[in-house]
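Researcher: Can you fold this with nicotinamide-adenine-dinucleotide in place?
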Amino acid sequence: MTQNETRRALIVGAGNGIGAASARRLAAAGLTLALADRDLGAVTRLAQEIGGTAFAVDIADAGAVHDLFEAVESQLGHVDVLVNTAAISPMAPDGGQLGIAATDLDLLQQVIAVNTLGTLYLGREYAQRTDASGQGGRVVLLASAAAQLGGHKSASVYIASKGAVLSFTKGLARELAPHGVTVNCVAPGLIDTPMLRGALRPDQDAVAARAVPLNRIGQADEVAAAVAYLVSPDAAYVTGTTLDVNGGYYMG
Ligand SMILES: NC(=O)c1ccc[n+]([C@@H]2O[C@H](COP(=O)([O-])OP(=O)(O)OC[C@H]3O[C@@H](n4cnc5c(N)ncnc54)[C@H](O)[C@@H]3O)[C@@H](O)[C@H]2O)c1
């Protein structure tokens, strides 16, 4: 596993931001990549650039998640590594915080469907395909500092959806440990991606960064580095944990 890497990694949400940066890291580490996103064009372009195979999926759809695993397995083989970065973060129409009282019921259910249920569907499909030969298997999920500190600008439904990811990480880690599979999550703080830019204009960065001890917004590749570590053979004895990549925004 350390040399001539042959593991296959399914990266969901690879079309943009932290997912795309993670794909670049894992490509450089020599893993065979399945790049999935609801935006097929984005993962197709990325696959042309870094290698790998592109797949379309909406993780809010349990049947589509099942079909994704079937397609990846038939085209590439068993999924050894699962990384899920796909999520949505709703904001108020004026770009401000979306309070729970003002959260439309359809939107509330959509956020839970993508961020929470989508994560559970992926974990379930991975677990159903894991057997005693799971050595070297890895699951990396994306939570958020917002779930740890209550969030400053995130919607409460987003905070709740990510709190479930923190907990599910521990449950799945215990379930899959007997198979030699590790399960961890990464909790980013403020990271410069399209998701953050839906809530923060670049001219607001300096003010937002005052709440961050390292006094800056982080980069997607800095989170991808944590993902790559958790996927690597070096992290074989790390499971059930949350790796904070937040510049000190939240100190657990
Ligand atoms: N950027 C930040 O500041 C920040 C902070 C904390 C946590 N996070 C978390 O990190 C992860 C990555 O965030 P990002 O900033 O890169 O987001 P992003 O919006 O830049 O990229 C998310 C990707 O997920 C895809 N996606 C969204 N819904 C999907 C669905 N239903 N099915 C399949 N694909 C879907 C999008 O098409 C997009 O390519 C997310 O889980 C997010 O909640 C981000």
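Model: Folded with nicotinamide-adenine-dinucleotide in place. Residues 8-245 form a domain with the Rossmann fold fold (CATH 3.40.50.720).
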